[in-house]
Q: What sequence folds into this?
């Protein structure tokens, strides 16, 4: 073969589908990020205010790194030469000096061969002021920094940049449920930081991912398949891309132009078989004990009503598990499973609170929708039961589903297996 004209059309279409849906990588095309206008606007608005910085926080998998990728590209524009933006990744080995070496290297500060010793927040401020540009500096995966000294110096950097109204905005991006979790106890800088919470995507936003991706490769999707894919994604763009990729590839393989429920079923099977989270699921559900219910209990947890932070109680699992098992289930019958799922050997659920009042949530949010996909793929539930469980979950989930400190509510039995 000597050119693109020799490539079979089907291979070209499969490649196009792979380009349209990228579950393994953050979005890096600004034109594909129109589905997060509120968060983008909040960050850009903060950029124009001298002395104000940004903390973008939220659970894993909601698209924070995609926004961190795209925002510097939106800032960089040939028509706005006085604006600049860079993004660097933080890691557990980073200290204050290594972070700023990466930042200034990304800004091109070493192009003339000059090296700086970044140990002092004031020195960093002087170097940023010398840029004579409005500069956005995105520190992605900020929550991975383990050096307390580095965190304190970064807090001092925010303070001095704000106090001197320096034209540089720091944007901290990380997994957290609040700014306090992301930035720690540095109360002195909270007033200088714009808090931007990245929630899970709405059904409309997830639908936009599917519609944009399929239309870019001249594919359509039926209404039932689209609705199912949106619900299965659970607000996480990763799964919208994953289901779009595999169902689109299945459709192209059959030389068709419309994605149907059959293609979505094939996408589920492929996702369950090949997903990187499979080993985590297996660690959570495998046991040498006979007649264990780890898969069923984990599936019930995935369908449990929850509050806005993803927490549920032991009692919230009872009805979903009873529907899955097709018999009445009491808390003592699955309490041991909850204890083990939240223990060190499995590390699947995060448990908080006091005895008899514990609350739980998935440590890895991606595992929740994945457990539902496995349940469908293994036929532990059928589509009719999935819809009933999903409806039950959506009707009962609420920001104020429960008060974790509410007295007199026996969420945990005192004994029993």
A:
């Amino acid at each position: 073969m000597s050119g693109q004209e020799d490539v079979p059309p089907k291979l070209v279409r499969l490649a196009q589908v792979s380009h349209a849906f990228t579950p393994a990588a953050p979005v890096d095309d600004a034109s594909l990020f129109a589905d997060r206008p509120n968060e983008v606007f909040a960050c850009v608005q903060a950029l124009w205010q001298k002395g104000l910085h940004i903390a973008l926080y939220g659970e894993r998998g909601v698209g924070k790194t995609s926004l961190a990728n795209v925002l510097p590209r939106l800032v960089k524009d040939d028509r706005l030469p006085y604006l600049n933006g860079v993004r660097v990744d933080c890691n557990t080995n980073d200290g204050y000096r290594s972070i700023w070496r990466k930042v200034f290297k990304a800004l091109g500060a070493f192009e003339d061969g000059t090296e700086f010793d970044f140990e002092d927040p004031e020195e960093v401020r002087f170097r940023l002021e010398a840029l004579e540009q409005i500069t956005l500096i995105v520190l992605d995966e900020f929550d991975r920094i383990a050096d307390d000294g580095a965190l304190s110096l970064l807090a001092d950097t925010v303070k001095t940049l704000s106090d001197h109204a320096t034209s540089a905005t720091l944007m901290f991006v990380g997994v957290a449920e609040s700014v306090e979790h992301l930035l720690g106890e540095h109360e002195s800088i909270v007033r200088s930081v714009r808090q931007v919470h990245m929630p899970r995507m709405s059904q409309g936003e997830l639908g936009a991912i599917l519609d944009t991706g399929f239309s870019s490769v001249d594919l359509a999707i039926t209404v039932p398949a689209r609705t199912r894919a949106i619900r299965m994604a659970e607000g996480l763009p990763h799964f919208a891309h994953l289901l779009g990729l595999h169902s689109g590839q299945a459709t192209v393989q059959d030389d068709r132009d419309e994605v149907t429920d059959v293609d979505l079923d094939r996408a589920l099977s492929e996702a369950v078989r090949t997903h990187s989270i499979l080993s985590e699921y297996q660690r959570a559900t495998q046991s040498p004990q006979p007649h264990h219910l780890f898969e069923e209990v984990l599936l019930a947890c995935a369908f449990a009503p929850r509050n806005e932070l993803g927490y549920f109680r032991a009692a919230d699992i009872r009805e979903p598990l009873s529907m899955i098992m097709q018999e009445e289930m009491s808390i003592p019958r699955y309490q041991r499973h909850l204890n083990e799922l939240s223990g060190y050997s499995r590390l699947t659920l995060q448990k908080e609170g006091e005895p008899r009042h514990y609350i739980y949530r998935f440590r890895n949010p991606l595992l929740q929708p994945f457990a539902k996909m496995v349940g469908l793929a293994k036929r532990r539930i059928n589509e009719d039961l999935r819809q009933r469980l999903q409806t039950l979950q959506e009707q009962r989930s609420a920001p104020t589903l429960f008060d974790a400190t509410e007295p007199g509510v026996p969420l945990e039995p005192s004994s029993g297996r």
